[in-house]
Design a protein that fits this description.
Elements: E1 5-10, H1 17-21, E2 27-31, H2 41-54, H3 58-61, E3 64-67, H4 76-86, E4 90-93, H5 99-107, E5 114-119, H6 122-126, H7 128-133, E6 137-142, H8 144-151, H9 161-174, E7 180-181, H10 190-203, E8 207-210, H11 216-222, H12 227-242, E9 248-250, E10 253-255, H13 257-269
Helix pairs in contact: 2-4, 12-13
GO molecular function: catalytic activity; magnesium ion binding
Organism: Caballeronia humi
Keywords: Magnesium, Metal-binding
Length: about 270
């Protein structure tokens, strides 16, 4: 399954966990970091551990991810130890800034851990190639707002074009899925989320971080191939099956290897 939507849920709001799982979000990200105040972090971790042990079904386990506190904070080691005890393998690492950090975290997690490296600083962007190629990293995600604060960038538009392209290029170079775009803070602005999804998709992102269930449907549909694209891809692949050697035409246009590759990618996205 292509994972497009990553829905954040505050780690100290256990009453929202099941509601988030009832949404159409592809991944529910229980957040022990920014969404939880320092004085509530220990209680949030302990509550999450109880929920993982007693209320999370095996069927839902693959949809749950936890964003731990950042490497080097006073809460980080205990967060990772709790996830190891729970045998949870989907982990989001905030403020990812080096491959060594990620390797260290993975070594302390359960076997088969898959890390989403949330890059949200200048240091992380500079180290992005090494991060993308770190063995435990399953995907890159863009912490766009934190990055802008760190870099001193005031806009969220074309000011980020270079960084967005870097995410896509480094993900492709490392053989990772298309990266996950940052959040849209506007919860009730349906047009804005559609616009932001379209922008991310145009750069080559494959999913988006969500801060409210209202955003999930727009993210899932916006990053999915359109019905027209899927129909075109199927026509190309059907014609390829009939004419495997050489170039051929579909809809009056020449089809060669790059076009075939595009059709296969569309078909794989479903």
């Amino acid at each position: 399954m292509v994972l497009r939507s990553y829905l954040f849920v505050p780690g100290d709001r256990p009453e929202r966990f099941a509601k988030a799982l009832a949404s159409a979000a592809h991944q529910v990200v229980i957040d022990l970091e920014d969404a939880v105040s320092p004085d509530a972090k220990v209680a949030a971790r302990e509550g999450l551990a109880r929920w993982l042990a007693s209320e999370l079904s095996e069927g839902d386990k693959a949809r749950v991810m936890v964003r731990v506190n950042a490497f080097g904070t006073v809460w980080h080691d205990d967060d990772v130890a709790m996830l190891r005890e729970a045998a949870l393998v989907n982990v989001m690492v905030p403020k990812a800034e080096s491959a060594q950090q990620l390797d260290d975290i993975a070594a302390r997690c359960s076997t088969g851990v898959a890390l989403v490296a949330l890059i949200e600083s200048v240091a992380g962007v500079v180290q992005m190639r090494d991060i993308a190629n770190a063995k435990p990293v399953a995907r890159l995600a863009f912490g766009s707002f934190d990055y802008c604060v760190d870099a001193g960038i005031e806009g969220m538009g074309r000011e980020l074009d270079t960084v967005r392209s870097a995410f896509v290029l480094e993900s492709r170079h490392a053989g990772l899925p298309a990266p996950v775009d940052g959040v849209t803070l506007a919860i009730d602005d349906a047009a804005r989320i559609v616009e932001d999804v379209a922008l991310g998709r145009s750069f080559g992102f494959g999913g988006k971080l969500c801060i409210h269930p209202k955003q999930v449907d727009a993210v899932n549909s916006g990053f999915a191939p359109s019905e027209a694209d899927k129909a075109w891809a199927q026509r190309v692949l059907d014609k390829l099956a009939q004419n495997p050697p050489g170039a051929f035409a579909v809809d009056g246009k020449l089809v060669d290897k790059p076009i075939i590759d595009r059709a296969r990618r569309i078909a794989a996205k479903g």
